[in-house]
TrEMBL record:
Official protein name in the record: Amino acid ABC transporter substrate-binding protein, PAAT family (TC 3.A.1.3.-)
GO molecular function, one term: ligand-gated monoatomic ion channel activity
Span of domain Solute-binding protein family 3/N-terminal: 27-253
Organism whose genome encodes this protein: Epibacterium ulvae
Chief localisation class: other
Any single Pfam family the record assigns to this protein: SBP_bac_3
Leader sequence segment: 1-24
SMART domains: PBPb, PBPe
Keywords from the named record: Signal
Localization: Cell envelope
């Protein structure tokens, strides 16, 4: 009996080691945000909802894991992952070469464009010279920050911890414009009472070096979890779960090409 227990304990330890410290039967801890509707938001009762939240829960179900959602402010997402506060990030994080130096990514689970927002009728010249001195609001640590710093270095960047704060300052006139994911901008601002009088400015932006290759799930390097999650993403795309979640929040398939 003693030998059997020792053998089982050893086998469990090996299995845990082989999956980078995450045994198949364990709870999967997912880092999420709660201030980026419709991808994630906090309800009045304190619960979390949104596209990212439901995708995280669907992936856990597909992997037959219990799902623990761990709320985290955006700029601390990767540091908290590396500190083992959670095992993966499902928080609309774009796949970029800079982030790949720190973490591994799954394949994309959605891909949507990025665009500026300003007062209706604004005629800002979206060039290096034309944006000099303009106050541009951005969520701290995002691909949008990278884009503005690279293309509009003379603009006056205002960095925020939550997207809600960016929109609030835009409405209050403390910002000239802000840069955001188009679907989040529509459902989280432009199609709400708060966004009345505002509109998209310019065309969709395109710079893979900053804006990335779509939105993926970040995991610690060497954990081996990305392969499991890739298989789960394909599975929920194939069995209709992804479409059900997608159609609850959006009128188009945001998975992209």
């Amino acid at each position: 009996m003693k030998l059997t227990k020792t053998f089982l304990a050893s086998a469990f330890a090996v299995a845990t080691f082989m999956t980078g410290g995450i045994a198949a039967a364990e709870t999967l801890r997912i880092g999420v945000e709660g201030a980026y509707p419709p991808f994630s938001k906090k309800e009045a009762d304190g619960s979390l909802s949104g596209f990212d939240i439901e995708i995280a829960q669907a992936l856990c179900a597909e992997l037959n894991r219990e799902c623990e959602l761990v709320e985290q402010e955006w700029d601390g997402m990767i540091p908290a992952l590396l500190a083992r506060k959670y095992d993966a990030i499902v928080a609309s994080m774009s796949i970029t070469e800079d982030r790949k130096k720190k973490v591994d990514f799954t394949e994309k689970y959605y891909d949507t464009p990025t665009r500026f927002i300003a007062k209706e009728g604004a005629a800002f010249d979206l060039t290096k010279e034309g944006t000099a001195g303009l106050k541009i609001g951005l969520l701290r640590g995002t691909t949008m920050q990278c884009y503005v710093e690279k293309h509009f270095p003379e603009a006056d960047l205002k960095l925020y911890n939550t997207q809600e704060d960016v929109f609030a300052d835009l409405v209050a006139g403390r910002l000239d414009m802000q840069l955001n994911n188009t679907l989040q901008a529509l459902d989280g601002f432009l199609n709400t009472d708060q966004g009345a009088g505002f509109a998209f400015l310019g065309e969709n932006l395109d710079d893979v070096s900053c804006l990335g290759e779509g939105t993926g799930i970040a995991v610690r390097k060497g954990d081996g979890l990305s392969a499991e999650l890739n298989a789960a993403i394909l599975a929920i795309r194939a069995n209709g779960t992804y479409k059900t979640i997608n159609d609850k929040y959006f009128e188009i398939d945001i998975y992209g090409k």
